Model the fold of this input.
Amino acid sequence: MFDWLENIADWLVYDVLHLDQGQHLTEALRFFIYDTFKILILLFVVIFFMGIVNSYFPIDKVKNYLSRKKLYGLEYLMASLFGVVTPFCSCSSVPLFIGFVKGGIPLGVTFAFLITSPLVNEVAIGLFIGLFGIKVTVIYVISGILLGSISGAILQKLKLEPYLTPWVQDVLATAQRDQDKFQEEQQNFKQRLPIIWAEAIKIIKGIVPYVVVGIAIGALMHGYIPEGFFEQYMSKDNLFAVPIATILAIPMYSNASGILPVVQVLVAKGVALGTAISFMMGVVALSLPEAMLLKKVMTFKLIAIFFAVVTICIIISGYVFNLIL
Done:
């Protein structure tokens, strides 16, 4: 889908700047250029699309539907399953997070999507089958969906809405005012477009600096942290290998398909599969670039709670993996 962006990044790095392949700076810069273009495009498309959706679907009705008790937690499962079919990395999932919150969807349901989307997708599933077989893949997919669903349910119970930043509160207020205006004036699609466009531009201007900084951090990590750096901490004999692997993964940054070859190498060198998968989940679902992006929409306290809950769930999953595989 974004092959043309890779070609642009290659042209800028290799032909314009004349940097040598394989160098740390080259890899970091190429990663930064490609991901910046990709995420900004996704950012605009998603926010604009969600603006159209929000203009036609009453926020209160969506909120009430997803808050009904008779769903018995299925809303978290639905959000996680939606995350599976949307192949976004953790950073490009943030625009959808904003759209979900703006649409009045409960915060816990939104978190369920945010966790699952980068963790489990069709590309990762295909690679998982090729590297580890169907049995391990099925267990991984189920655990990823459960991780998102359970984490979302826990975070919803904590009632964390007050810890969203004032910027998000303003976005929510604006969304409600625009939606009321659409309903009152019965505007057609052509009349709504300028308002939707203006709101999309406003949101993008607010979040772009955080996106760029987050991608820059990820690019530095991608280019300068060697793949074998953490292997010494993940031996099978270490009882605390799973939590250590999960915590050490946080400074890393990659998507599921990008980190899977690293997981294969770790397993080949004797690291327990559950420990290696915990490392992968930590890299994908918990990262400093993601935290930097989330700072625009969450306070530090909310980010800390979010990371803590997901970390605990990943660690539990890792130990379970090591027991059953």
In short: The radius of gyration is 20 Å. The first helix runs from residue 3 to 16.
